[in-house]
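We modelled the chain as a single entity of 93 amino acids. Its sequence is:
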Amino acid sequence: MDLEKSGNLIEAALWFVVSAAFTVKAILANRKLRQTFWLLATSFVVFGVSDLIESETGAWWRPLWLLAVKAICVAGFVIGFVAYFRITRRPLT
């Protein structure tokens, strides 16, 4: 078995587990955080799918649209985590 392909498959499984955790968080979250958790869950599941595709193509930049999908997912991660910290941070007293 090819180590690179196996690594991508394991990585995809990890992202699916992370997505499932954010899905549970979204279902249980209050109204303010629900949308943020759905964004993160969606971003991680798409990132997992992109790793499945990467395991077949052998490169994260080939085809070019795969690179674009991964970049959009990373943007979703950043937006989601920034939103989470803005919502949950406590104001300084």
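As a brief sanity check on the tokenised model: Helices lie at 3-28, 31-57, 64-88. The two ends are 57 Å apart (CA to CA).
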